[in-house]
Amino acid sequence: MRSTGTYVTSTTLGESVRAFVPNALLPSAPALSPESFVVPNREAELALARLAGVSGLVPSVDWLLYGAVRKEALLTSQIEGTQASLADLFDEEAGFAVSNSDDVEEVTNYLRAFRFVQGSLRDPAGLPVSVRLLCEAHRLLLDGVRGHNKQPGELRRSQNWIGGTRPGNAAFVPPPPERVPELLSDLERFIHAQPEGGLPPLVRIALVHAQFETIHPFLDGNGRIGRLLIAALMEHWALLNEPLLYLSGYLKQHQAEYYRRLSAIRTDGDWEGWIAFFLEGVAVAATEAERGIVAIASLVAADRRRLLAEPKATPASYRLFEMLPMMPRFSIERVRQSLNTTFPTATAAVKVLEELGIVTELTGQKKNRSYSYQTYIDLLTR
User: Fold this and answer.
1) DSSP 37
2) CATH class of the domain comprising 311-381
3) What does DSSP assign to residue 254?
4) Do 173 and 20 touch, CB atoms closer than 8 A?
């Protein structure tokens, strides 16, 4: 059986525990077998290529990104226990009251962290994929939310553990804090080194994600930063030009298997099982995202045809309709501001879309009414 690390004794909360220190990448003794990943890697790469190609079906890729990035933010946060929904997120962006505002703020923080990482990677003067970049993202992730007292933006200086009620009965104890900087430096070197043995980018991403989760370098937020690292590397290694993939949906759906496969790397040396699971996840998630884009493109095209055939349609109603995929929940006031028009013109534009059944009113009130492009939200939520 392959050894993937060593155990060292660490003390935390007065208990001695066996902390796991992973070997540096690549897996060795034996090395990874190409036969274990060649076929699933090809299928995953083809699924990503189809996903990239189908994005041309819509007039604006920004529409797709608006939904895809928010789905990933929501799902990666749900893996960590938040209860927010996509509708909650859209309501918060529309300025409506939401009952679980703390959970929504956590999702919004992930979006901020994601945008920071993406902006850095696209800016010639920005930070590369690095420990420093991840620390900055972590600072944004925990800003003012649950975990804000757990050293945002800093590598942990104390021993952590996963599962169990105390260190002594934990399911897993990551490396002692003094080993974390060196382990992350090794990981950063692996990311920027020339790939050894012709390893495909997706296989390297699978290795990096698992290694990051094993190091568990922060006191909180490791899972979300580790999954954000997947998206960053997808762009860094030119697998997807735009972040249209929401892999966290697959990982949430198979959450027990996700954790079991990561654990089996440490307990059984089973890197191959983890890589196969990861590649299947990419293929499934890319295919689901592709189907979602086709469904959204079909819905928007059908609704646009109905609007164009409506004699009462106005230039303002056309402009409002084109905004809906990035403004699926809204008030008349928000429409007035977005269209830079008068209140009566905004009201008339909304009324046209409401009478066509494209948008629905949510409150049933005469004043302070709010509206939803509900069929679109339902498609995104599906």
Assistant:
1) T
2) mainly alpha
3) T
4) yes
Cβ-Cβ contacts under 8 Å for 102 (sequence gap 6 or more): 145, 146
- Confidence label for 11 from pLDDT (cuts 50, 70 and 90): confident
In whole angstroms, give the CA distance from residue 278 to residue 282: 6
Q: Where are the domains of the chain?
A: 5-292, 311-381
Query: Which residue type sits at 68?
Result: A
Dist. CA 291–CA 272, nearest whole Å: 29
Q: Taking Cα atoms as reference points, which of 225, 208, 227 lies closest to residue 142?
A: 225
* Torsional sign, CA 43, 44, 47, 52: negative
Cβ(200)–Cβ(41) below 8 Å: yes
Give me the DSSP letters along 43-107. HHHHHHHHHHHHGGGSS-HHHHHHHHHHHHHHHHHHHTT----HHHHHHHHHT---TTHHHHHHH
* Adjacent-strand bridge partners of 77: none
* pLDDT for 147 beyond 80: no
Residue 355 has pLDDT above 90, yes or no: yes
Element (H, E) at 168: none
DSSP conformation class of 162: B
User: Exposed e or buried b for every residue in 149-174, given b needs 16+ CB within 10 A?
Assistant: ebbbbebbeebbbeeeeebeebebbb
Place of tokens 């169990």: 164
Domains 5-292 and 311-381 agree in fold: no
> For residues 266 and 172, what is the distance between their CA atoms, to the nearest angstrom?
10
| Tokens (6 digits) for 266 | 């440490």
Q: Domain 5-292's class?
A: mainly alpha
pLDDT at 100: 82
The DSSP output letter for 23 is: P
* Cα–Cα distance for residue pair 35/22, rounded to 1 Å: 24
Give the distance from CA 104 to its chain's centroid.
15
Reported as a single tens digit per residue, the pLDDT across 153-208 is 999 999 999 988 888 888 999 999 999 999 999 999 999 998 766 799 999 999 99
- Which phi and psi (to 5°) does residue 9 adopt? -85, 130
For residue 347, give the amino acid letter: T
Q: How far apart are CA 96 and CA 187, in angstroms?
A: 43
pLDDT tens digits along 195-245: 766 799 999 999 999 999 999 999 999 999 999 999 999 999 999 988 999
The residue among 321 and 368 whose pLDDT is bigger is 321
